[in-house]
């Protein structure tokens, strides 16, 4: 079967699908990932097909952070959605072109417009989501807030948010559907139709981390994590290998695809926290250009989390879905520093699991708070013990198997 995975977003929105794609190819499928040009070498390097989607998400995200000043996570979420909506027409055209060579579409939340493409071409599709998007009474919309709105409010807000995210692209969708000879449809009616048809969503996270709410339909289920494609030939450079061997396990600090409004200030803060906590550190520059100097600090570019994190004493990160999961898989304590979208949600889940002393929201981050959290995460053995227990449980799961089974049912 020719499988097209449409992945819109940052590296964290793409990486898990390389591992899922490799697994599907091992099952005999032919897999192409439709994503941004920024990730072409990454995708093809995993032996998967690639189809280009518009937008340089690194440039767009940096521009939106700079314009907003980083003041409000909710405002940033809306700004990113507006940026993607501005390119909805190009995205629809690119997905249509890619889908003509597919037998089935696997769609992420930000590639929802591909659902209309699948309908127009008469192709089956499956949701493959990294964040919980199905409305529920049990918690509020994961991409907006962690503060409960009450049962009715939580569910209503999540439903309204999905519709609101589609409205800016309404004209593009109507034109797309007209080109396929389909009637126009309002976002709410379209979503209701998906649910009535029992459109399946496979959630790529562990039910241990997010147990399925009682009011989710049985065709929306967490199946387990999809880990990025392994790099069996990876070998650390001599500088990294030497640093790790030269002393006690260091901490990791990296904020992934999160751009910084003031990289110099953030770098200075992190450096001060490292010195105050008295730890060695491996620092990943990321999209924010984090740079920290010191005898006990090593700067690195991309190193597979699956290799690096198990060698760390603790990991400081932005609590993106993939990085939070990588910390759990490695069995190490975390110090999450969430900023926007779903990051506060995952930071809260890490705290609930007992693998972190607690999140420090980016807007409240100080050197003293970060140093104190590091000292607690490393010094109190309960966090390492709990992280080890969680890692052992996750090792028993096979997230890709849930998608494989769904494909067999088509």
From TrEMBL:
<dbReference type="GO" id="GO:0005975">
    <property type="term" value="P:carbohydrate metabolic process"/>
</dbReference>
<dbReference type="InterPro" id="IPR002213">
    <property type="entry name" value="UDP_glucos_trans"/>
</dbReference>
<dbReference type="InterPro" id="IPR004276">
    <property type="entry name" value="GlycoTrans_28_N"/>
</dbReference>
<dbReference type="GO" id="GO:0008194">
    <property type="term" value="F:UDP-glycosyltransferase activity"/>
</dbReference>
<keyword id="KW-0808">Transferase</keyword>
<dbReference type="Pfam" id="PF06722">
    <property type="entry name" value="EryCIII-like_C"/>
</dbReference>
<protein>
    <submittedName>
        <fullName>UDP:flavonoid glycosyltransferase YjiC (YdhE family)</fullName>
    </submittedName>
</protein>
<feature type="domain" description="Glycosyltransferase family 28 N-terminal">
    <location>
        <begin position="3"/>
        <end position="139"/>
    </location>
</feature>
<dbReference type="InterPro" id="IPR050426">
    <property type="entry name" value="Glycosyltransferase_28"/>
</dbReference>
<dbReference type="GO" id="GO:0016758">
    <property type="term" value="F:hexosyltransferase activity"/>
</dbReference>
<dbReference type="Pfam" id="PF03033">
    <property type="entry name" value="Glyco_transf_28"/>
</dbReference>
<dbReference type="GO" id="GO:0033072">
    <property type="term" value="P:vancomycin biosynthetic process"/>
</dbReference>
<feature type="domain" description="Erythromycin biosynthesis protein CIII-like C-terminal">
    <location>
        <begin position="294"/>
        <end position="409"/>
    </location>
</feature>
<dbReference type="InterPro" id="IPR010610">
    <property type="entry name" value="EryCIII-like_C"/>
</dbReference>
